Amino acid sequence: MERPCGLLTHPKEPVPLKSISVTLSISEFVAGVSATLNYENKEKVPLEVFFVFPMDDDSAVYSFEAMVDGKKIVAELQEKNEARTNYEDAVSQGHQAFLLEEDDSSRDVFCCNLGNLPPGSKATLALKYVQELPLDADGALRYVLPAVLNPRYPLSGGAAGSGLTGKTPMAPGEHLPYTLSLEATITSQLGIDRVQCNCPLSATEYLGDRTSAQVSLAEGHKFDRDVELLIHYREVHAPSVAVELGKPAAKPVSLFFSGGLMGDPSAMVSFYPNIPEDQSPITCGEFVFLMDCSGSMGCPMSNQDKSQLRIEAAKETLIWLLKSLPIGCYFNIYEFGSSYEAFFQNSVKYTQDTMEEALRRVKLMQADLWGTEILAPLKNIYSAASIPGHPLQLFVFTDGEVDDTFSVIREVKSNRLRHRCFSFGIGEGASTSLIKGIARVSGGTAEFITGSERMQSKALRALKHSLQPVVEDVSLSWNLPPGLAAKMLSPEPTVIFRGQRLIMYAQLTGKMPPAEATGEVCLKYALQGKSFENKVIFSLQPKSDANFTIHRLAAKSFLQTKDMGVTDTPANDKKDVLKVSLECGVISSHTAFIAVNKDLNKPVQGPLVRRDIPRPVLCGSSWIPVLAGGDDHLVQLISLQNADGSWCLNEGLAVVLGVSLEEILAALPLKGADTSGWATVLAVLWLHGNRADVKCEWELLERKAVAWLHSHAGAHTHALVKAAIDFLNSSVDPAVFAP
């Protein structure tokens, strides 16, 4: 198959990107990444090469270097407009120039322009960044290397340096003209239990009583998916504080940072509070589900054989969520793309009738609404009057293809006092900037669903969070020696969810005490009238780090709260963003890295030709939706449950149970009794006996069912349970039906 190269003038000529290598260093729950891109211009004319590199929104890019024909050029971080001007001037004068900047509409996509790459020239670009690693529900740390050039956005057009191009050519993974290698070193005093990857690895080597590990990606990796590493530590719940030594020669850059952020020691505080789960979730709330129905939702969840389509997985998840809502709440569903439509004019009370109407509409959903415009439906949702006693809980499902991430985040932030937003990135390549940003500014949570992961598990976990009583009076206090103070660089948490890890950064100012001195930090919060606290005592002897990992992550945390994009950051905040970005060397939307090589013996001759590097095709048209193995009966059973938690006795239930309707009726222990109680007991037993592996997905459904049983079957519940266990020959403990 001939490789489609789109904008290339000579499609059969090789593109100059030859290989990508990534070196990864993971220490505890922080990663340092060095990505090296190798180019070679084999054409007879000079090239200006354009490259896109997506990464996690929490990444802090702090170094950019180029090696051109053996000469090293170190990039300088400058104010963005100044850097763009210098880049254009250098290119116009025939110099080699390199410009690295965030895309104007999102902080997790980086654009690299190479100006005037001479014929026969070789160039190596090295990009370094640090990032926090998110924690999965099972305690595993997750690192993701996005599929390079992943087509996540309808990218903004324009001249070089003014945003990403929407015309970057596409190519199937097996025909991409470049290769990827990845090597990772993992160290932790917590002990490494195991390392997993969604792509083939070379042999994993564990060292030092499993306190370190070496892993590498097997040769022949295709760019058909993100590379995901899961690191399971033996202990992850212990709170910790790490103190990092600053740069003694750093000069103050603002009144906010008296000694300069890089000059003082920085502290990274990690808490994993053990918040008890309330077994009686609240029953109030307005639940609004915002579902992406753009064309890209018709893509598969992954490029694995028979992978389910994103829209199908999302529809199944919506069914789960609708069935799990509590009686007495209000809800609505919006589908959006280039346009949007609400299922109901206003949020409606959750009843059997409204639930059935919503389910009918959900089943008709298709990925046919073209582009992705989320801002308009968001504004419509926020314009509606609040329902007294029912706080708004917003659930957003999207694969992340939006035009202006900053505008969406700003809109959510402006309404943060009246709602929480729980966001879900669907499929490989979802925008971490969008998904994490809208959750962060509203006090919600963010989840990413890729590959073979079950969307239902993560969505139901978020619903449980929204139904739990609010954790109140959250505060962080420091107990430090006299003369030493802590200035918070991260916003202090206002909401804490069960199973959530908190990472915060602080600047330590004043006189550092002797080496043996210690400090203490305490996290306090209240839940349903009870007070809780987590304390950790830590050494005040700072450790040195040549990469200043904690300082740069602290700067990134500060920038995330202040930087709202090139055009919308307030003037005072822009001033602080520029100062912190330039001092710490961490890129922002207002700064860019530029490197210029002026040491050529002669100007580059010939017309300058633009080349956009092909990106992999991750969205095919030959995929068909399929249910994960064994899920068809589970989906059917869930779809049969009534809004109040009960099941009706009918042929659909009989099919799931694998017996005839006549047999079920014949086994009814109380002749003439309401068959709904009998059907509900049988359904709950089937869930426990057949799908206990995904209990987290139907736990709320079961709670509704058991509550309904005790309010309707009453004293007959015990007899129904005993007869159902005998009828199904079940080994399930009858205690699951305890009120």
TrEMBL record:
Which residue range or ranges hold the VWFA domain?
A: 286-467
Q: Which residues cross the membrane?
A: none
Identify the residues that the record assigns to the VIT domain, covering every copy.
1-131
Q: Domain of life, per the record?
A: Eukaryota
Identify this protein by name.
von Willebrand factor A domain-containing protein 5A
Which species does the entry assign this protein to?
Molossus molossus (Pallas' mastiff bat)
